[in-house]
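STRUCTURE:
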């Protein structure tokens, strides 16, 4: 039986972007019951994850020391799958290697020194790879634009939608209950997510409040709070911090619209999650987001605050004039992003490399 190693230690941060990718891909792989493959997960708490996923997988305990070359994992697996481009855990030997690339934000973010360091690491991964999977057409194009990609098979396999069941108990409320009506967004508080543009837009939308979820204990989060204070809208902007799935679903179910002015996305899962609730989607017209949002989402071409407010007002009018059409379209669009399909495509790639 052929053995595959999934470098999946990002499961330790289950609700991060990479953690969610790891979790839902592995859960979907388990549902496919690949009896002809022995798949090993590299995880920080093997017993915990064995309870979650069962005996269908083998489990290797993640150790941070294996990031260093002399202590790399020496078992010669038939295939090593590196689940994202930032992972520092690599195999000791030159064995068949699949790389999943989510994004290459590092080519424009951070100091020039950090950018160059990350480019060197990424080039090494590219040239180690026997095949490469990208999570969007944009990421594939972006990678091939900025790097010399080796002559190996390249695939685009889109992520699935993480929210299938949208039912919430009628009496459920999160600890932080926003005033309605409100706009909602979620993500780490960083310049790339561009949340400050939403705060600036809110000055021209007195009828709405704003709820932002995600890690806000960052310098960008501090800058955002300063803007809120400056504009005197503290009672209209609610920062929930990190949220788990049920809390997120509550905010998605009860918001007026989902707003996502990101400057750069390798894929963009939050808009798909919002679509599952039939909500109007307002997103940036850049990188992978048009690929995700499709023809009936509403797009910002730039981030001048009055312009953003006008796009939102006009979009909400359009949505409310034909809500059944838009709700049905958004839900159907979300359903096209399936983790079951994603897992099947990965298994096909595994078998192609192994053959």
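SEQUENCE:
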């Amino acid at each position: 039986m052929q053995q595959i190693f999934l470098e999946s230690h990002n499961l330790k941060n289950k609700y991060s972007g990479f953690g969610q990718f790891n979790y839902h891909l592995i859960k979907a792989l388990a549902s496919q019951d690949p009896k002809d493959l022995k798949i090993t997960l590299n995880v920080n708490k093997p017993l915990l994850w064995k309870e979650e996923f069962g005996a269908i997988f083998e489990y290797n305990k993640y150790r941070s020391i294996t990031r260093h070359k002399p202590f790399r994992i020496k078992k010669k697996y038939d295939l090593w799958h590196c689940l994202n481009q930032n992972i520092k855990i690599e195999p000791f030997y030159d064995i068949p290697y699949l790389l999943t690339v989510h994004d290459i934000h590092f080519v424009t973010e951070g100091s020039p020194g950090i950018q160059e360091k990350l480019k060197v690491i990424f080039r090494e991964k590219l040239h180690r790879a026997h095949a490469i999977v990208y999570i969007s057409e944009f990421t594939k194009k972006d990678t091939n634009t900025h790097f010399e990609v080796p002559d190996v098979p390249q695939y685009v396999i889109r992520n699935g939608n993480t929210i299938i069941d949208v039912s919430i108990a009628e009496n459920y409320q999160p600890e932080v209950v926003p005033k309605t009506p409100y706009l909602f967004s979620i993500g780490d508080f960083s310049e790339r997510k561009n949340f400050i543009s939403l705060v600036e837009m809110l000055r021209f939308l007195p009828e709405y409040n704003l709820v932002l979820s995600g890690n806000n204990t960052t310098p960008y989060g501090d800058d955002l709070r300063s803007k809120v204070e400056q504009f005197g809208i503290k009672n209209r902007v609610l920062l929930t911090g990190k949220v788990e799935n049920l809390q997120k679903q509550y905010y998605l179910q009860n918001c007026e619209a989902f707003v996502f002015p990101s400057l750069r996305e390798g894929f963009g899962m939050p808009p798909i999650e919002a679509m599952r609730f039939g909500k109007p989607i307002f997103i940036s017209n850049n990188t992978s987001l048009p690929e995700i949002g499709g023809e009936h989402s509403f797009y910002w071409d730039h981030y001048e605050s009055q312009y953003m407010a006008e796009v939102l007002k006009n979009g909400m009018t359009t949505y409310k004039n034909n809500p059944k059409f838009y709700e049905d379209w958004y839900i159907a669009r979300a359903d096209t992003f399936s983790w079951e399909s994603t897992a099947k495509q990965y298994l096909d790639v595994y078998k192609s490399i192994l053959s």
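REMARK: The chain has a mean pLDDT of 95.
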